Amino acid sequence: MPPADQAVWFAEAVRPHEPALRAFLSRRFGSLPDHDDLVQETYARLLRVSDPQRLGHVRAFLFTTARNVAIDHVRRTLRRPVEPIGEAAEFALLETEPGAADLLDHLQRHEAMLAALETLPDRCREVMLLRYVDGFSASEIAVHLGLAAATVRVHLMKGVRDCARFFRDRGLLEPAAAKKGSP
User: Fold this and answer.
1) Could you tell me which of 117, 133, 125 has the C-alpha nearest to residue 155?
2) Which of 6, 83, 84, 124 is the most interior residue, by most CB within 10 Å?
3) pTM value?
4) Which residue ranges make up each domain of the chain?
């Protein structure tokens, strides 16, 4: 893609999502020191895509790329040289921050959620993203999208139901009967 076309595409398809992207990074990776660097690295990776206009869901790709950039940053910061073990009293009994396994589990759940959202119809996905990624209330979504509050609630119920089905079909969620103790 010529640089001029790429600049127009970036300005129209990517930049409008920057406030939501920054909010996402602040909520999900609040302990990381510099979100500006994460945003810039995300943009750099996005611009390296050979044909970005073929991306079907730019927002989802953008957020997934940002998540991967943040994970890479966490991995780099977790690599520390091995130090000799001192006295046993120096060991912390309880960790105050989530460990690598907890972070990985959270990130895998987030990836599964993005995959489930990709299966939803466009308007339903938009409502779900506004609610669960951007943190909008149902009434705020209604005003933002110019929809009736009842329509937003229907989209939210359908989105939750379809995402739950997606998770059950892939073995990521127990079937409803198994949770109630039925055979």
Assistant:
1) 125
2) 124
3) 0.43
4) 1-78, 121-174
Burial class (CB within 10 angstroms; exposed 0-12, middle 13-18, buried 19+) of 23: middle
Which DSSP symbol is given to 12? I
CA separation for the pair 135, 131 (Å, rounded): 5
Secondary-structure class of domain 121-174 per CATH: mainly alpha
Encoded tokens for 132: 């669960």
Cα Rg, the chain, nearest whole Å? 20
CA distances from 86 to 23, 82, 89, 149 (A): 41, 12, 8, 60
Q: Cα dist. 17→33, 57, 183 in Å?
A: 21, 12, 46
Spatial contact of 166 and 116, defined as CB atoms under 8 Å apart = yes
Q: Which amino acid is at 88?
A: A
Strand (E) or helix (H) holding 19: helix 18-28
What one-character DSSP code corresponds to residue 152?
A: H
